[in-house]
Specification:
There is one protein chain. It is globular, with a radius of gyration of 24 Å. The longest helix has 29 residues, at about 335-360. The protein has helices spanning about 15-25, 50-60, 65-70, 90-95, 100, 115-125, 175-180, 250-260, 310-330, 335-360, 365-390, 390-405, 455-470, 510-515, and strands at about 1-10, 30-35, 50, 70-75, 75-80, 85-90, 110, 130-135, 135-140, 150-155, 160-170, 185-200, 210-215, 220-225, 230-235, 265-280, 285, 290-295, 300, 420, 445-450, 475, 490-495, 500-505. It has 14 helices and 24 strands. Strands 1, 2, 8, 9, 10, 11, 17 and 18 form an 8-stranded mixed β-sheet that branches. It has an 8-stranded mixed β-sheet with strand order 6-5-13-14-15-12-16-19, with helices on both faces. GO terms for molecular function: FAD binding; oxidoreductase activity, acting on paired donors, with incorporation or reduction of molecular oxygen, NAD(P)H as one donor, and incorporation of one atom of oxygen.
Length: about 525
């Protein structure tokens, strides 16, 4: 017997589920619940890297300063091959280029996942929302699959709830994905990975420096953490694998062997784990209209570049406002389809690129190992490092890719119909691009006016928006608000910070035709 009815059920309270809940909590008329099978949030460090785009999401929730205060900035990334230092990338150079990178957060921040979850859950608690722990979803029943109506969810507590949408944020072993029989395409790597949080004396790195050590026996690394601790990691090849465990002495031995720094002293280990790495993704991020899969439930990949948790956070950010606008403003259902269109393309690209990178770093094939150990040192030392130091465009391209600031949806068909009115300079941001530098509130569209001429047409356009869409769209004058960008015309920014529409002709009918695709407003 149904005991409650809600708009959205979030299954899983890791970073992805918590971010989704935080974003939805900003919409007071939406009813949702978030459940998790575990008795408490993680107390282990787990995912460490929080990239610039994710810090921007925290900024929308007024959590960025708290995250920065509790994390560790990485000043330098170094590569050692066969015991010799071959390359260092000075990340402090990036921080001096804040304006040209168009972000307030040109950092790589190491923040323990336990702290990330604490920040997000505290935000929820402050909004009177509690995570329902030790609660699992046991089964799902579509009430009327023909008309795409609600879903009944049977919980482990014995309760049955009715919901319009289910958001699966329940990780790589997702019960939702399993119950829906969705294939998880990809493969499992032959190598396992160990991770450990320890104190390290006589490390060959500074306390703000990350290091990777490549050797014939495999890959290891050191990542600095707060309180003078380090994250140790490394590959364990198939012939040396144990079932699920490795001792800290064995992990320390692999690190010393691959770095050829045998005087390191690894001690006071607070957490150690061994896991198999995969690269997999589902083909549909939206299923039967009512089910959405996010984060590791939809895609998993190697830990190269620290992209996993960050990608899950972006999934949540992309979906939350779309669900909210369908439920709050009666947006057309096709708006929800764009979640799959946009995020599945990103996931596929990420899975493929991290797979190639991990394969190169860990492969035991003799040809790959020869290139890694004898060709790569020359490339790193004489090409990559000089390019990073002396060529700003190269340096920024590396950072934009790693930080996820460079993600764009511009090539997708959803933006091909009428999303741009007028002729623009080639450097003007396009629909589908992230709007640079400025962070607006995540509950509205934002129409930013740069035009200093055509004032009559601009004013008519603004009055139209105020009359028809005042609850959805906020108006901004770039000059009055001192927005540090010099662009032409005007740009409409989505709640997640990506550009929806641009114009320098201020044709009201053109805008109506575009907006009518997603919102059922009468065309005038």
């Amino acid at each position: 017997m149904t005991s409650s009815s809600i708009d959205i059920l979030i299954i899983g309270a890791g970073p992805t589920g918590l971010m989704l809940a935080c974003q939805l909590s900003l919409y007071p008329n939406i009813t949702f619940r978030i459940i998790d099978k575990n008795s408490s949030r993680t107390v282990n460090s787990r995912a460490l890297a929080v990239h610039a785009r994710s810090i921007e999401l925290f900024a929308q929730l007024n959590l960025a300063e708290k995250a920065l205060a509790q994390g560790k900035f990485i000043d330098k990334m170094s590569v050692f091959i066969r015991g010799k230092h071959r390359c260092s990338l000075d990340l402090t150079l990036i921080r001096t280029e804040q304006q040209s990178l168009f972000t307030h957060y040109p950092y790589i921040l190491f923040l323990e996942q336990s702290v990330t979850e604490q920040l997000l859950e505290t935000f929820l608690n402050e909004h009177n929302i509690k995570v329902e722990r030790q609660t699992e979803a046991i089964d799902f029943i579509d009430i009327d699959s023909k008309n795409d109506n609600d879903v009944q969810v049977i919980l482990s507590t014995g309760e049955t709830i009715q919901t319009k949408y289910i958001c699966a944020c329940d990780g790589a072993r997702s019960i939702v994905r399993h119950k829906l029989n969705l294939p998880f395409h990809g493969r499992t790597y032959s190598e396992s990975l160990f991770v450990a949080d320890c104190q390290v004396d006589n490390a060959p790195l500074g306390t703000d420096q990350a290091g990777v050590f490549l050797a014939s026996s495999g890959l290891s690394g050191l990542l600095p953490m707060t309180n003078n601790r380090y994250r140790l990691f490394g590959t364990i090849h198939e012939q040396n694998e144990t079932d699920e465990t490795i001792s800290i002495d064995e992990a320390a031995h692999l690190l010393k062997q691959r770095s050829e720094h045998f005087n390191m002293n690894v001690h006071d280990c607070s957490w150690i784990s061994v896991y198999r790495s995969h690269h997999r993704h589902i083909t549909k991020f939206r299923y039967r209209n009512r089910y959405f899969l996010l984060g590791d439930a939809a895609h998993i990949h190697s830990p190269v570049g620290g992209q996993g948790m960050n990608t899950g956070l972006q999934d949540s950010h992309n979906l939350a406002w779309k669900l909210a606008y369908v439920l709050t403003y009666s947006a057309r259902d096709c708006l929800l389809d764009t979640y799959h269109d946009e995020r599945s393309a990103i996931a596929k690209t990420l899975v493929n690129t991290t797979d190639r990178a991990f394969a190169f770093l860990s492969s035991t094939y003799w040809t790959t190992r020869f290139v890694r150990l004898f060709i790569a040192p020359i490339l790193f030392q004489f090409i990559v490092q000089p390019l990073f130091i002396y060529l700003r465009k190269f340096r920024q391209a590396v950072f934009l890719g790693l930080s996820q600031l460079g993600i764009t949806y511009r090539s997708l068909n959803v933006y091909d119909y009428g999303a741009s009115a007028g002729n623009f300079h080639q450097n003007t941001p396009q629909p589908g691009d992230r709007f640079p530098y400025v962070i607006f509130d995540p509950c509205h569209y934002h129409f930013v006016i740069f035009e200093r001429q055509q004032l009559i047409k601009v004013n008519q356009f603004v009055e139209f928006i105020k009359k028809e869409y005042s609850k959805m769209i906020k108006i901004h004058d770039s000059y009055e608000e001192k927005i540090p960008l010099k662009l032409e015309g005007a740009i409409l920014i989505r709640p997640d910070g990506y550009i929806a529409y641009r114009t320098n002709v201020f044709d009201i009918r053109h805008f109506q035709c575009y907006f009518h695709q997603f919102f059922p407003t009468e065309i005038m």
